[in-house]
Hints:
Strand content: under 5%
Shape: elongated
Structural class: mainly alpha
Number of domains: 2
Number of strands: 0
Distance between the termini: 48 Å
Amino acid sequence: MRRLFLALSFVIAFVASALMPATLxxxxxxxxxxxxxxxxxxxxxxxxMCNAMAQGWSRAQIVGAMQQANNQSVTGLTPAQAAKRANxxxxxxxxxxxxxxxxx
Length: 104
């Protein structure tokens, strides 16, 4: 029984260590940040979105980051309007600037 437990512990440790590098690599993405007045800078915003999509960010993550970065006093966009505009820009970005990129 003790040998079985020892063997099982070894197998679990081996499998866990084999799976860990992929987990760490996926979690080690470059930070993505949008400026507070992102709607005023189309090229910079599209480039940032393409980088986020290339890193595997979801549509919800990108929209959330853009919505959070939005400075309403500068852009005049409410959070709901910023989210709507961000969704439109993601669609435009996939077609115009980073074709083939996927933001699920």
